[in-house]
Amino acid sequence: MSDHLYEQLLATTTGLLLLTAVLQVWGRSVTRAIRLLAIQGLALAGLVLVVGLHGGERQAPPVALLVLLVKAVAMPWAMARSARLIDQTKEAGSLANPAVELIGAAGLTLLAYAISGPLLGGQADPAAQAAPVGFSLVLLGFWQLLIRRSALTQLVAFLLIDNGIATIAFLTSGGLPLTIELGVSLDVLLVVLILGVLVVRMHEEQGHIDITELRELRD
């Protein structure tokens, strides 16, 4: 793989990651947020493959396939199933209007690029230079946690943070060993399945999944 092609593929995959993250923060549709999560998993798998192949790592294809299956297929499927069970396709409301959401997303993205430069120490490697995208995903995930009221979209935000952490890891270290990535991905998938069940139970017990109305614990 030539350096020019490597940089182009790197820019494409990281750009897709950042675009899907911003659209997740901006939208109100739960269905669209889950679809964007699947596209994000596909972009992350492509990023793993590009970085791994450029670095000459033999385990890049199986790690990329693992990321694809878990983050682009299994997790979105589990989220979509929970949404179907509670019949929620659109979030009832948000703690911020769309303009504030976009302004906050833009500000956090700029902040990510500002703080990641000193942390990375001005590395010349194109992958390291793209690491601010991972920091942006993490900050946008926390931003979504702050402004969303639905437990289901909060779960999407949690997965956005996880994707951001994985992006930083792959861009700064050239990828993780397959056994580590397998363990982490399966742990996150298990958490998503458990939280999906809890969201359904919450809807059955309370009639809604608005976390702002859960003021106190009851027997």
TrEMBL record:
Keywords: Cell membrane, Membrane, Transmembrane, Transmembrane helix. The lineage of its organism: Bacteria, Bacillati, Actinomycetota, Actinomycetes, Propionibacteriales. It is a multi-pass membrane protein. It is found in: Cell membrane. Its main location: membrane. It comes from Raineyella antarctica. This is Hydrogenase-4 component E. One of its GO terms (cellular component) is plasma membrane. InterPro entries: HyfE-like (IPR038730). The chain crosses the membrane at residues 6-26, 33-54, 60-80, 92-115, 127-146, 155-176, 182-200.
